[in-house]
């Protein structure tokens, strides 16, 4: 229920390769219970499970793990075979090198490199090896390799920087879910920077755990937002314990042992506010319940602390561009 929802932008972008190939994906969307109208609404959101299902279905329908964004398709099963090739490596460094070597054997595969920069290492992507106007595959590849690496060693690899070869897009506020670190736009290449100490860490996974991992990856790696250790994430965890009785800003500041002014400043530095955070959390909890038939609209409104269903109705439409009833209808 606390899971962050995913902006409709990413679903539209994911369909770009299929669109360019003239593939009619409307029946696919209908099968998944995703209305094309919802995707056309810039403020609309998808539940993580919905997004993962869309990526899985697209991959199979197109017969391409790159979803039409590579210079040549990558047959379904390629990612799994790469994982089998690296799972027996002793350290993360060896595993990443073997994984990147595996993909370099395909002449038209996206080009990824791992280079040392003092005590840091940079994973870089050459975007010229993609046909990816919305940068969907570029961002996906960086996210997948980061999360795959974190899974292999059983702990989150702390990112120190993410760079992008293009200007900050309109949906730039969503990036903290993908890359919880300082972001730099309009650089020479897309890359991730992290400390080299991770490369010496042993792999904690094996063939048995890999089998379970591959049942849902790589789609699951992309659909699971990374909350990181930011103040925003801490507050979401704190607030979501009881959505009906929100503590006020002063109470939260006292809980964190900081002054309300400091809390406001930190949230401002992370590009958000206390009110915005509460609204986003309410929106995500509402989407969670609307996707299930467990609660009526009135019960959801009460759970979120709204005195009237009409107030919830107005707020949800403001957050997502659609009414709660319309959202529930396209879900079922």
Automatic annotation (TrEMBL):
Signal sequence, start to end: none
Stored InterPro entries: AraC-type_N, Homeodomain-like_sf, HTH_AraC, Tscrpt_reg_AraC-type_HTH
Tree of life domain: Bacteria
Domain HTH araC/xylS-type: 233-330
Keyword annotations of the record: DNA-binding, Transcription, Transcription regulation
Keyword match Cell membrane: no
Alphabetized PANTHER family for the sequence: HTH-TYPE TRANSCRIPTIONAL REGULATOR GADX (PTHR47894), HTH-TYPE TRANSCRIPTIONAL REGULATOR VQSM (PTHR47894:SF1)
Name this polypeptide is given: AraC family transcriptional regulator
Origin species: Pseudomonas tehranensis
